[in-house]
Specification:
This protein has 474 residues and is α/β, with parallel strands linked by helices. Helix content is 41%, strand content 12%. It has a seven-stranded mixed sheet, sandwiched between helices. It binds pyridoxal-5'-phosphate.
Length: 474
């Protein structure tokens, strides 16, 4: 097997590469100019029989892989939800890979299990999550959300865990969301046997927030029709526009009907660290579960999504299943395998611990605040120009907008112009934005969330957009 003797040199080589990369990720095109299949075609069909020198592998990494990478660390990555990883978290990932523990039973790594509990209390405290809630780390919000809904299903007391959902009489189970709720909720409904059609899309108000009156009516009607509400999903920071559902009012409705309230704050939750945005958490204390993604806007590399639970026993009830070979005599400890589908779990708390300590909460708050301010400035530039529309309220660090040249008001034509604009802007390799549809209108979307993004980057993005728009007209 591999000689440890060369490891220090190899790792030093990797560390130098990482440092150089993070110093200037913008030296690469943010979106690579490659065609589908091009990278795979450059790679051999089979692995080598004999060992290859580390340097040869690094050379291929630099020459073949990196040119085909979409650079999420590029400060002008403004697509989807912009993210980035900071050096402390990267170093922690290397340590976690080295220890390679599986955080499943307390005894399979006591320090990893206990650090997860401690860091979750830190994070919960920063976000204003009520004392006594439990935070558990999952890979993604999709899995954390699925886990919460599985717990909600179990809480219905229909013996689904034991007897399943087929071959017997069960009421139709319903989940209430909106058209702006992230698609993982529908996927969870599919996987949990609820069915996609039983995810009720409650109408929204003019600011893309769940209409609470409509929710109340939908629930009452379904109950009258013999259906069984399983959960309401409120979103704090929806994916398209970052609209914020009125959680406290939704909680009133859920309490009246005894329905599980799940809050998806995957992107926006971390902004509750800012005193001026604490209100993002209003009403969350009355929910049963909450998801926040440190891998979105807390500068933690994939993957790290946190599910906070008012009563952790609900998830254990859904998932705990202990075969003989995993029983222990450790007593009153938290065995993380009891909280989801997964048995072996990565040591994800380590990168959160390193990052919170090495950046310090003050610097994190400053960056979040700066991102929000940059987005507001960008929206101000759009507002000041007649040929650009802002298409939705922008409470945080995402702006939805479009180019709207004078005299063109046909939606199909505007969609074509903006879709072309998007392609051309992204083809520059200098910036990367994505799109969505809002009320059927095609919208460009600029998301600020990368730790390295500065005002110069947003100014450059605005200049590129205007330049390409002029070319589009020409
Ligand atoms: N929830 C919201 C509001 C999102 O915006 C996203 C992704 O952008 C998700 C959930 C899914 O996140 P993940 O990729 O962690 O599953």
């Amino acid at each position: 097997m591999e000689q440890l003797g060369t490891f220090e040199d190899d790792f030093a080589r990797v560390a130098r590469w990482i440092a150089g990369y993070l110093e200037q990720p913008e030296r690469f095109a943010v979106l690579p100019a490659v065609r589908p299949g091009e990278i795979a075609a450059r790679l051999p069909d089979a692995p080598p029989e004999e060992p290859e020198p580390f340097e040869a592998i690094m050379r291929d990494f630099e020459q073949t892989i990196v040119p085909g990478i979409t650079h999420w660390n590029h400060p002008r990555f403004f697509a989807y939800f912009a993210t980035s990883s900071v050096p402390a978290a990267i170093a922690a990932e290397a340590l976690a890979a080295t220890l390679d523990v599986k955080v499943m039973l307390w005894r399979t790594s006591p320090a990893a299990a206990e650090l997860e509990s401690v860091v979750m209390r830190w994070l919960g405290g920063l976000l204003g999550v009520p004392d006594g809630w439990t935070g558990i780390i999952y890979d993604t919000a999709s899995i954390a959300g699925f886990t919460a809904l599985a717990a909600a299903r179990e809480a219905l007391d229909l013996a689904i865990r034991e007897d399943g959902m087929t071959g017997r009489d069960l009421p139709r189970l319903r989940i209430y969301a909106t058209e702006h709720t992230h698609s993982h909720i529908e996927k969870a409904a599919i996987a949990l046997g609820i069915g996609q059609r039983n995810v009720v899309k409650v109408p929204c108000d003019s600011a893309y927030r769940m209409d609470v009156g409509a929710l109340e009516r939908a629930l009452a009607q379904d109950i009258a029709d013999g259906m069984r509400p399983l959960a309401v999903v409120a979103t704090v920071g929806t994916t398209s526009t970052t609209s914020i559902d009125p959680v406290a009012w939704i909680a009133d409705v859920c309490e009246r009907h005894g329905v599980w309230l799940h809050v998806d704050a995957a992107y926006a939750g971390v902004a509750a660290m800012l005193p001026e945005h604490r209100a993002l958490m209003d009403g969350v204390e009355r929910a049963r579960s909450l998801v926040v993604n440190p891998h979105k806007w807390l500068f933690i590399p994939m993957d790290c999504s946190v599910l906070f639970l008012r009563d952790e026993a609900t998830v254990r009830r859904a998932f705990s299943l202990v075969p003989e070979y995993l029983t222990t005599t450790d007593g009153d400890v938290r065995n993380y395998m009891d909280y989801g589908l997964q048995l072996g779990r990565r040591f994800r708390a380590l990168k959160l611990w390193f990052t919170l300590r090495h950046l310090g909460v003050g610097a994190i708050r400053e960056r979040l605040r700066a991102h929000i301010a940059l987005a507001q400035t960008f929206a101000g530039w759009l507002d000041a120009q007649a040929a650009w529309d802002v298409l939705a309220p922008h409470p945080l660090s995402v702006v939805c907008f479009r180019y709207h040249p004078r005299g063109i008001d046909d939606e199909v034509a505007l969609e074509a112009i903006n879709a072309r604009l998007l392609e051309r802007v992204n083809a520059t390799g200098e910036m990367f934005i994505s799109h969505t549809k809002i009320d059927g209108r095609y919208a460009l979307r600029l998301a600020i969330g990368n730790a390295r993004t500065t005002s110069a980057d947003v100014e450059a993005a605005w200049a590129i957009l205007r330049r390409v728009a002029v070319q589009e007209q020409g």
